[in-house]
């Protein structure tokens, strides 16, 4: 049975935009969080690619990664993930190969097969690209080959990129990527921070079908966990109302900008909407350090995962940084 001390703690950052702040503020806070994570000893910080969402500022993921890498020293930084169908594999390999050349052993590439946006924006992103049903597996293998050492007479070589051996992860919220990650022998991260329904099935499928590879000798699983940790349960529940309002905006097709917390969500959502938010946050750990510690221990016992990658939608940036400090205190208190 793994312990919290043995379990890696990481962060998934979406560069949330507050309703009273600029996008510049969000991007600079992402760097503040990266520096904070580095000081606290988090294993990695990833950025998520989303488009046409007013409350998420990490759309130009590789560009923002360069900003974080240039202003930190040791923290592993990567994508969680690059939505591969939106991009040509060679361009992704060149971008991350450039980052890995400038910042050796610090860059990781997590790949997803969802668009990370709505259908209209997806068409704008993929203009001129022809997609087929089985394109994602081929694109993943193509990127892996670009990061490898070139072979004689190879017609296309990623420069920079070749020989960098950037670690590649597969991300998913269903069984497809779990099966592909197992087949290719890659680490797997499940998006339970917003789609927890198939978590256990995906983990089981991945582990049972894992084939050792030159990338990984045995299965490695991380899962997304939303967190709101505060000094008391009551404060955490209050702070969590910002996250609830954000998901409510997603459900209604409204703004995703972070809103200030409220004393109560009564009157702000309907019963079905509350159920939808509860399902979205089924893996969320909200409360005092003691409450969240017990929740993480239960989650670890159920899943036996290697790593938690935490998200956090707290409005107050100081409280948001405190959330990650308290999480690391939990890890070291066991």
Automatic annotation (TrEMBL):
Residues in Luciferase-like domain copies: 20-306
InterPro entries linked: Bact_Lucif_Oxidored, CmoO-like, Luciferase-like_dom, Luciferase-like_sf
Similarity comment: family membership: To bacterial alkanal monooxygenase alpha and beta chains.
Protein name stated in the entry: Luciferase-like monooxygenase
GO molecular function terms noted in the UniProt entry: monooxygenase activity; oxidoreductase activity, acting on paired donors, with incorporation or reduction of molecular oxygen
Keywords: Monooxygenase, Oxidoreductase
Gene3D superfamilies: Luciferase-like domain (3.20.20.30)
Record gene name: luxA
Gene Ontology cellular-component annotations: cytosol
Organism: Acinetobacter stercoris
